[in-house]
Design brief:
The complex is a heterodimer of chains A (500) and B (131). Chain A has 500 residues and is of the alpha/beta class. Chain A contains 17 helices and twelve strands. In chain A, the strands form three sheets. Chain A has a seven-stranded mixed beta sheet with strand order 1-7-6-5-4-2-3, with helices on both faces. A three-stranded antiparallel beta sheet of chain A has the order 10-12-11. In chain A, α4 packs antiparallel against α12, α6 runs parallel beside α12 and α12 packs across α15. Chain A starts with 7 loop residues before the first helix and ends in a 9-residue tail after the last helix. The relative contact order of chain A is 0.13. Chain B is α+β, with helices and mostly antiparallel strands. Chain B has a six-stranded antiparallel beta sheet with strand order 1-2-3-9-8-5. Classes of the chains: A alpha/beta (500), B alpha+beta (131). At the A-B interface, α17 of A face β4 of B.
Chain lengths: 500, 131
Amino acid sequence: MPASTGNPMQDEAVVTIYERSRPGRAAYVAPPPDVPDVPLDDILPPALRRATPARLPQVSEPEIVRHYVRLSKRNFDLDSGFYPLGSCTMKHNPKLHERAAALPGHSRLHPLQNDTHTQGALELMFNLQHALAEVSGLPHVSLQPSAGSHGELAGVLLTRAYHEARGDAREIILTPDTAHGTNPATVTMAGYTVVNVGTAPDGGVDLDDLRAKISDRVACLMLTNPSTLGLFDSNITEIARVVHDAGATLYYDGANLNAVMGLCRPGDMGFDIVHFNLHKSFTQPHGGGGPGAGPIAVSDRIAPFLPVPVVARDQDGTFRLDHDRPQSIGRLRGFHGNYGVFVRSYAYICSLGAEGLRRASQVAVLNANYLKALMARPGIGEHLPVAYDRHCMHEFVLSGGPMKRNLGIRTLDLAKRMLDYGYHPPTVYFPQLVDESLLVEPTETETRETLEGFADAIAEILAEAAVDPDVARNAPYTTPVRRLDEAAAARNPVVRQPMD
Amino acid sequence: MAEGHYPEDLKYHREHDWVRVEGDEAVFGITWYAQDALGEVVYFDAPDIDAAVEGDAPYAELESVKAVSDVYAPLTGTVVALNDAVKESPGLVNSDPYGDGWLLRVRMSDQSQLDGLMDAAAYTAYLDGLS
């Protein structure tokens, strides 16, 4: 047995499910069919079939279960501890929603079932469209996009369709320099050119820079409000006026909707297109990249171009999928969107109600401001000052620059050391315009004790670094793996499982 | 290199690039401060030979473990050589930013642009003002 690290998880040999495979093992053996056998050649010509069987792992059921349970224990998750990446990644997902989504009427639906057999599901989708229209202040909704970035793409394609229908070719889309990385990526994917708009000293959009860059060549301004700095841009009415006067559309990135639900509405601020992240603000668990949902809501002038189908209600009260939208940009994905996500988000909206959604946002903002105040205390504040010192919304940004100069540890070192204290670190090194940044979003469901415990841990890490910075520089110590060589992983990625 | 250093024989641009003038050609790279802020560089997305680069405009991207960042041209010119060693081993930008970690050699279009750049003392003072 190799020398022990003292940490059973670090000692454990990690193997892939393929390495557990042994010929002939199986988790389940199907009974003989009780229907006539159809020759495979009749339904799938040999030319379309693979020549050799797929090399799937052959593993017994207990081995499968143990493999994945073991892996799950090596992970840090929201059910294990505080995870101040916040709603930007995943806020608490109430367990009640899983019960609703697991009901057979939801979980056993087939996407090819006839509308007459799926009236309940269509009604849920119709009601969800209505609720999202209410939250956004924009009346027309498509549930099709399956991620925030997909919603962004839909929004930019709608902008293009809107301008082209007017015979007005435009080629530029403006994004603030605080924008989520998906914004410029979406713009480029949709065939537009990105131009950055600067940030004013108060953290909002630099209005002078916006006025200098707006023109009749600009198709759209994509904005997040509150911004990625956690600051509400109180110039939003003026921003909307400048953008609309130039004939451009105003796009709302819904990543930070958790700060404003029921408090103010993007439609009332002058936005034309909004995307929601149901898997963030509206509590859909989404590990490993899915499933998500990024519905969009739009104003009257954009509505004719919405993707198909949209759920409609007829005079007699029946629901149907409306494909008859001649100016539509078309389909964005197969079938109806990620229906299971809709169920959970609709359960969230129904269980909280309008007043409850408002309260969730209010407490998210309160928690962020309370934690921000805790971060200002002596022992923390001189090393991790707030980048823009004003009341924040649901999140705030600290700068680790002084910590690096005073104590010789970087934001990355602080983040790694937090893991030893049982906390997942917040987002680090974003937004990029803040030196050594930490973006902290506690969300509405965390208790005062949790927030205070987190602040105490940071104070201890900083005090420890003042004595010996190597403690943080070499962290983490207690996790299943120690510090990973991210540079080597990026330079020499190994993305293929050797099969033999 | 634990501490920043800024050679006297180079000129500096506010976007943290350096220039070494050699006749009518100039060698570009990023400063110690820039590589320290980026963290470990993992990829250099370089322009092509003969491409035009414009002073104050991005000409390449450096990807680090933190982010992808634009690299700004301190001067206008035409690319005459690329540092293939950095494409192979991007970590040279961190380990030797003024030597083996150079990025690009250009033929300068307008030598008077050199007057708009900082010397080492001015750049060091500029960095002090940032923190």
